[in-house]
Amino acid sequence: MAKEGTVLLGLRISNVAVIEEVEVTFGAGLTVLTGETGAGKSILVDALGLLLGGRADADAIRAGCDEASVEGVFERTPVLAARMEELGVPDLGEEVLVRRVVGRNGRAKAYINGSMVTVGVLARFMRGAVDIAGQHEHVSLFDAGLHRVLLDRYGRLEEQLAAYGRDYAAVAEVVSRMEALGGDESRLRERAEFLRFQLDEITRLEPESGEDVRLDAERRRLAGSEKLKRQGAEAEQLLSGEESSAVETVGRALGLVNEAAKCDATLAPVAQALGAALSELEGAQRRLNRYVEGLESDPARLGEVEDRLDALKRLCRKHATTLDGVLQKRDALETELSTLDNRQEVLEQLARERKAAEERARRSGEALSRARAACAVSFGTQVREGLGMLALGKAAFEVRVMPGTQLKAEGLDDVEFFFSANPGEPPRQLAKVASGGEASRLLLALKRALADSDGCGCYILDEADSGVSGAIADVVGRMIRDVSGHRQVLCITHLPQVAAYADAHLLIRKGLKGERTVSEVVPLEAGSARTQELARMMSGVEVTREALGAAEALVRSAHRVSGPPRARREVAPEGGSRGRLRRSA
């Protein structure tokens, strides 16, 4: 099992189509889901698609209900942990709870660990966590835009990609600087004139850092000079006036305590404290006297300060910043204007830098191309091996690495997969593969080749084995089992040969509850229950003795090839069927 891929631990679906309430737990390895057509197997896949940010359809809500909900518990991985930190979503430990609610009014709500998010955020959060593959849709491997990413991941080319990415970024940075100096001469002259106008406006005022704070303090002092002078004089009178001033009162108290201290030495500290207080009061009185004498009403100076402050504030408002920000803007204007004034010389220097940066990027890009070409051979060989196992041994599969000369963010190459099922026919783009059975087998061969390198931890195969029958079905089962050794696989299948290889088997069946049709999920234990379901898949409604014998033979054969089912890591509901899904100890 992949160490970093996300594993689906549990799923709860409420009021979706014919499902009233279903809770399913999943473990590692291969889990198959079987049941008669229309029992509701694909509803589970559609519900899981909602947790991945898929489109919500109000028509899918069960009749008579106002809303439908889907909850999923996923194993916390470093990737999900980083995304939770980035989004500010609470991280609750080893598990991540994702919930989606669809209302009858068409409104949808989404939650991650109980925190409400938009559906778009949910889609970004779950991106790459689960790969849903069906016969006709959700087959991301058939998207030509992803082929380069898949090949790079297969070849583990992270270091080469990072080296090229750094060199390409250096080229882009130089190009951006050149483009800023490009364009016609008239536009550049207009830009230079505008910069000079802004710079002159700032330099004429000659602002200084912190000047606005100092001027504001001076303005308040000048504006309140008369009041300050009156209050200062009154305070000075209280300190040193003729009668009952603070200095006189403390002085008399000090004399009395000094006399008493001659008889009782314990009063000496009190005398010292009073002496210190008297000294402080006298000092304060002198400073206050000088302050009052220095205060002058100066309307002219007040007007100058207010005009200067207004000019500084207008400048700050114009540039939408503080005075220090204006000073920084002045420096930036000077730098840009100097660059424009010396444009030709700067462009010549940048052209030399660009040439050197492009040469470095081209060398690292060519090294990346060689690595991709080597990986393409190995990857193509592995896919063809898988196709051979699936009775498509004469099919052609190619990974075409098409080098170019133009530097691009992803390298010099275009990468695309080509396929032909029929000998003599030229390989075509995957998107043009028409046969359902061939497409299913190619999908499985690709999954097998990518299983050890794909970053996705959970594959959902929604009848991806459709169109396969006979002896090939057993090979398909073995191949899906092989893939499940690297990734968690949930497989909806009609093939008993595939179901026989499962580590866990879930039966989806419909029944009546009162007057309503409901679907339920029944875990089948190894033994007679699973054998009975495999026999039903072989013979239909009536399970014959021959079908039971064939089913038992299928299970024995699967065990001989792959061994007994692997141990499951269970997820149990907490607090009953309505409780939060959690992983058991």
TrEMBL record:
Residues 558-585 are annotated as: Disordered. Pfam families: SMC_N (PF02463). Residues 323-367 form a coiled coil. It comes from the Bacteria. Keywords: ATP-binding, Coiled coil, DNA damage, DNA repair, Nucleotide-binding. Residues 27-512 form the AAA+ ATPase domain. May be involved in recombinational repair of damaged DNA. PANTHER family: DNA REPAIR PROTEIN RECN (PTHR11059:SF0). Belongs to the RecN family. This is DNA repair protein RecN.
